[in-house]
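Can anyone check this?
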Amino acid sequence: MSTELAQLVYEQKAGNFLSVAFANYKLLLVLIDDDAYRYLLRDLLEVYKTFEEEYELHLGHISNPKDCQCACLREPWIGEALKAAWAPTLKRAGRLESDVVHFFKKKDYRTVQVSKEVREHEMAVREISVKNPEYLVIFPFVMYSETTKGENLVRSFLFRTLFGCTAAYPFDGPQKDSTKGAAFFEYNMNLAQVQAERQSLITKLNSIKVPQQVVPTLVSQAKALAERNLAVKHSARYWTVSLVIFSAKAIFYTIILIMFTIPLWVPRYWHWMEKNGYHNHDHSEL
């Protein structure tokens, strides 16, 4: 039967709205620091790469089912649902990799350890892929609806802070020369087309024929996925890096300020001492 999964998923995530907003504002603080931001990108790369690889692995099995014992072929509706929910034009892993390579420069990003939250996220996705691939049906909606709507504030702040860009959405159509380090927020389409793709995610999810007894499980899986995404954004290592860098910068600029102000306040101090007679005391009797 046809079930409006998108609405059910939205209602389930509505309780997390403040948490999502809070995570975005914390993310704004991280974006001030490109050193912390590159570690966030490294983690996001692993998150999206794992999800997209596992999803496309099942699409391959569905297209070529011969001698395949994959769980996605266990029931006919699973394969149809996975194909219907997929949105290849919104894939992010390739663009994230471009950003990561840019920010880590000559260092091989693959040698950089991901956070504990990402490892847990990855294990959960791979376990679902092996045991219950039907749960992947809700992944495109949850993963890509964030990048096409929920991250608009972060995107705008990122461009202004790191790249001096004043537009909230500067990539209005296909770009020959992408802004380095901001590919994650790029799409080979204009803003109206991106919003149309997001609406298409909702339409696709609502049109999928899912057995009624599976719907509550899919909704709970959507909530679990959203919570894992939040856990990645809340990872302590971003805030640790930001705090250390902020403290180091504060100490550095304080020292510079003192060095430049010494020539100004020392002469004035000695002049005040002389004016008040502190330098003329006769201490011979002591």
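Reply from J.R.: I decoded it. Residues 166-178 have pLDDT under 50 and may be disordered.
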